Amino acid sequence: MFAQSVFRLRCALWLSAVGILLLLGACAEEPSAIERVQAEGVLRVITRNSPATYFQDRNGETGFEYELVKRFADDLGVELQIETADSLDELFSSLNRENGPALAAAGLVASEGRKQSARFSLPYLQVTPQIIYRNGQPRPTRAQDLLGKRILVLKGSSHAEQLAELKRDLPELQYEESAAVEVVDLLRMVDEGQIDLTLVDSNELAMNQVYFPNVRVAFDLGDSQALGWAVAPGEDASLLNEVNAFIRRAHENGVLDRLKARYYGHVDVLGYVGAYTFAKHLQQRLPRYEKFFRQAAQKNELDWRLLAAMGYQESLWQPTATSKTGVRGLMMLTLRTAQAMGVSDRLDPKQSIDGGAKYIVHVKAQLPESILEPDRTWFALAAYNIGGGHLEDARKLTEAEGLDPNKWLDVQKILPRLSQKQWYSKTRYGYARGGEPVHFVRNIRRYYDILTWVTQPQLEGGQVAVGNMHVPGVNKEKPDEQLPPL
After folding, report:
1. How far apart are CA 125 and CA 359, in angstroms?
2. pLDDT digits (tens, 9 = 90+) for 150-184
C-alpha cells in the first residue's frame, strides 16, 4: 500500500515537472514579428530618400510613403523609426538581415523577381511603367524603337527586370543600370539630352514632370503594376496581416485617395500640357516678377509664393493680359478694384502685384471671424474671384444642407449650385458662375504647392537646376493643416 502511494506521488511529481517544462517551452517560443514591434514600441521601416517615398523639408519628415506608414505606426500605437537605403539592392538586403527593419515601404513593385526575397502586402497604388523620351526627338512607339538608344534605369528596379525580360526577345537591346541616381535624376538627364530614354512609373513622372518641360511619355511598357509594402520571407505572417488590414481600411476610409490627391493630384488639375507649360513659365517668366511678388508679400504679410500662384492663375504672369470683361494686368484687376487699391496703371506689373496683394488682404479681412485657417485662406481666394456676396450665399446654402459653412471642403461642393436657377433663385445675390471659384482655388493651391517645392531649402536629397532656381530632387504638396496663413 505504502509502495503504491509512493509510486503515485512520484508519477504526480513527474507529470508536474513535465507540465512545467512544457509551459516553459511554450514561454520560450520566439515572439512573432508583430509582438516584437509592440514589445519594442517601435516600427522600424526602411525606404528610399526620394520625392515619392520619404524626404525631409523645413517642416520635418514627409513623403507619400512616410505619411502612409506613419499612420500605420500610429494605428499600432508605436513610434516610427525610418531608415534609408542608398540602393534598392541594399534595401532588400537590410530587410533580410537578422534584426533588420520590420518593413520596407519604398514604392516597390511586387514583381516576380522580388518575391524571392520578400513577401508583399496588398496593393495600395497602381502604377504604369512608362518609356520617357525628350521632346523634339523621334517618339518611340514600340519596343523595337528602343534599339540603339542610350537607356538608363535604376539598378535593382522593377524596370531593370522588365528590360532584362525584354532583352530575351530583343537581344540587341542595350541599357545601363545605376545605383547612383534617383528617378528625378533620370528625368533631368532625359530633359537635358544626356540620355535618350528612361523607364519610370507613372506616379513618379506625375510628381516630377512640372520641373522638366522637355520630357514626354513615349508609350506604356506593359500593364499597370501594383505597389506594396514588403516584409522578410518566412512563415511568420503576423505583421503582414496587420499591414493588409491597415491597407484595406486606408482604401475604405479615403486615406489613400487623399494622399494620392495631395502628391499626384496637380496633374489631374493642370493636365500634362498645363504642367509642361507651367514648367516653362517658371523658367522664362517668373524671374522677371519674383522681386515684385516678394516685396508686395513682405509689405502685406503674405506668402509671396501664394501671391505668385494667384498671378499665374490670373494671367500666366503676363502683365498686359486683358479679358473681354475689362479686367487687366498681371493680377487681372477690375478698374474699380485698381482705383480702390491705389493702382494708377493696371498694366504696370509692380503696381498690379501691389494692388492684388492689398486686395486679397482686404477681402480676407471681410470674412466672418468664424472661418479659421487654413480654410480662411481658401475662402479669401474664392471671394477674390467671385465676390463676398456670392460666397456668403453659398455658405448659407451649405448650412441649409446640414454641412459646415466654415469649411472650404463643404462650401466648394455647394458653390456650383449658384449657376442653377432652383438654387440661386433662393439667394440674395442671385446667379453666379459658382464652379469658377472652385477651379480658381484648386489651381492656385496646385501652383502654390509647386512653387513651395521649387523654392524650399532641402535638408536631404539632391537638387536639379531649373532656370535660375534650384528645383529640389524631392517635393511634396503640403497638407492643408500645414499651410501658413495668408
Report:
1. 42
2. 999 999 899 999 999 999 999 999 999 998 888 88
Whether the CB-CB separation of 229 and 105 falls below 8 Å is answered with yes
The residue-averaged pLDDT of 460-467 equals: 34
Q: What is the mean pLDDT of residues 199-218?
A: 84
Active site residues: 314
Can you give the pLDDT at residue 66?
A: 92
Q: Give the Å distances, CA to CA, from 25 to 12, 20, 29, 30, 170.
A: 20, 8, 7, 10, 58
- Comparing CA positions, the residue from 345, 247, 330, 306 lying closest to residue 444 is 306
Torsion of CA 452, 454, 457, 463, to 10 degrees: 160
**pLDDT tens string 62-73:** 788 999 999 999
Helices and strands (H and E) in the chain: how many: 18, 15
Ramachandran bin of 301, using left for φ above 0, alpha for ψ from -120 to 50, beta for the remaining angles? left
Q: Per residue in 78-88, pLDDT tens?
A: 999 999 888 88
3-state class (DSSP) for residue 154? strand
Residue 156: name the closest of 218, 95, 93 by CA. Answer: 93
User: In this structure, what are the phi and psi dihedrals at residue 401, rounded to the nearest 5 degrees?
Assistant: -85, 0
- How many residues can be counted in the chain? 486
Residue type, 352: S
| Cα 231 to Cα 32: distance, rounded to the nearest angstrom | 13
pTM listed for this prediction: 0.59
Distance CA 12, CA 284 (A): 91
- The rounded distance, in Å, linking the Cα atoms of 268 and 464 is 24
At 477 the pLDDT is 35
Prior bond of 374 cis (ω within 30°): yes
* CA dihedral for 35, 40, 46, 49, sign (positive or negative): positive
